[in-house]
């Protein structure tokens, strides 16, 4: 298509007015073809000609890339803005708006669409989780860091009873999702512009594995176990998979991370967030250890 396109392009990148030029194709036909492309490909095709640019802005093209319940997501992302302001957005702008991080629940949660294909993603801050002992500074502290999208993580020095619980009640777009805990052994900081990691408090995680548990309001349940290792790296630990069949019905997800064997203490771990991704989606620069399901 590249060679054919270049042969009918003018000096300024617009199709010349030839009988067989791209500019003579009906915009509706071009839009029908664009339906089969991914969003980045649609945006690149928009540079081919005025016809392609117009077709690439057609609402029905972008409606096919949006989740079925995109109006609910727009309402949540708007943060209370007037309906008139939302209604003025074309669906291409709606897609772009939903691909940006959209905070809610006081900024402790965010959702976004992956811009490459529209998959729904969510991140839940450690401050939105129920962490046993979080108010006791002898055990836990919130520490600032640029390595979290929320700029704060919960750091455990030591404890006998390690338990992190959370839940989210949300109208998820239909699909299959994986839930992860984002954890880091050791306390990272910067010194003279270089990243360093203190392993001072790391202990107890090699004795017994932690347990991940996930359940949903419609009866889905999963449990898995995994040892925490690889100090100095942020790792996504897989807690389980859940399926949403109807985006118009709210799904309540409950999840937990525990190591409550009180025969030994454990410590030196940072809890950043819980992440929900479409199953099979692999974020860049992420490590995934193997966890054993039961």
UniProtKB/TrEMBL annotation:
SUPFAM superfamilies: F-box domain (SSF81383)
Domain F-box: 19-65
Annotated spans, Disordered: 1-22
Cross-referenced PANTHER family: F-BOX PROTEIN PP2-A15, OS04G0571300 PROTEIN
UniProt protein name: F-box domain-containing protein
Source species taxonomy: Eukaryota, Viridiplantae, Streptophyta, Embryophyta, Tracheophyta
């Amino acid at each position: 298509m590249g060679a054919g396109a270049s042969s009918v392009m003018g000096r300024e990148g617009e199709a010349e007015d030839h009988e067989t030029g791209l500019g003579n194709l009906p915009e509706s036909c071009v839009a029908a073809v664009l339906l089969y492309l991914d969003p980045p490909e649609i945006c690149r095709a928009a540079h081919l000609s005025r016809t392609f640019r117009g077709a690439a802005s057609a609402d029905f093209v972008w409606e096919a890339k949006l989740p079925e319940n995109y109006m609910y997501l727009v309402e949540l992302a708007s943060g209370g803005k007037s309906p008139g302001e939302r209604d003025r957005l074309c669906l291409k702008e709606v897609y772009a708006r939903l691909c940006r991080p959209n905070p809610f629940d006081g900024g402790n949660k965010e959702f976004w669409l992956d811009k490459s294909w529209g998959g729904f993603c969510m991140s839940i801050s450690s401050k939105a989780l129920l962490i046993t002992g979080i108010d006791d500074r002898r055990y836990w502290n919130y520490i600032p860091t640029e390595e979290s999208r929320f700029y704060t993580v919960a750091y455990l020095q030591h404890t006998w009873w390690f338990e992190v619980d959370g839940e989210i009640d949300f109208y998820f777009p239909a699909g299959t999702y994986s839930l992860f805990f984002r954890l880091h052994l050791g306390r990272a900081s910067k010194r003279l512009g270089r990243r360093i990691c203190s392993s001072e408090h790391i202990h107890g995680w090699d004795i017994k594995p932690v347990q991940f548990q996930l359940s949903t309001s419609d009866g889905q349940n999963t449990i898995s176990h995994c040892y925490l290792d690889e100090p100095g790296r942020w790792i996504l630990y897989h807690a389980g998979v859940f399926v949403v069949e109807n985006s118009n019905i709210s799904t309540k997800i409950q999840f937990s991370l525990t190591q409550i064997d009180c025969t030994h203490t454990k410590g030196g771990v940072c809890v950043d967030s819980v992440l929900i991704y479409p199953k099979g989606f692999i974020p860049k620069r992420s490590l995934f250890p193997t966890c054993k399901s039961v």
